[in-house]
Design goal:
Length: 183
Amino acid sequence: MNSKLLLYLALVLSGILLGSSAVAQDTPEPTNWHGFLMLPSITNVNFLITHRVSVRVPTKLKIERMAGMLSVTFDTNEFESTNLVIGSNAVTVVLGKLFAWPVGEPRPTNWIGGWQDAGLDFNLGTVVLSTNLDSLPQPGTSYIVEMDLTAFETDAPAGHLRMFPWSTNYNIIWERVLKQIVE
């Protein structure tokens, strides 16, 4: 073999070996939690270096009451623009918690439906409550339906179980409560 080829192979192999060991030291190993893979935090998130993002946020729920069912989503005609300040390389997430209870009774402590979605598009779908599964709606009863919305930034990978409120490294960047009475 000629000396140039040997030198080339030596450089490539040493680069691979050194690079591999550096990557192994810099990247924590994933762990398991109740059978779910727990990915490590994103290491280059910086909540102190920020940028502004313009987003459209919901201002009203769209609720349809049918025999034995309530469907709850956002009224897409009732969004407004706002600016949020987000950290560098942070993952953004929207969390929605749905509460529903009869008018005149106290708000329950446990939410009955919810969503968590990476991004800030508020495309959280529709929750359908049924008399058979959720014990509401009952005929002749009016309900208060409330959606607690929280947008936050985190260093947890998108779609991951460690997202808010389970991640210990997050910042709430926007909150709103949408509330309506359904007859």
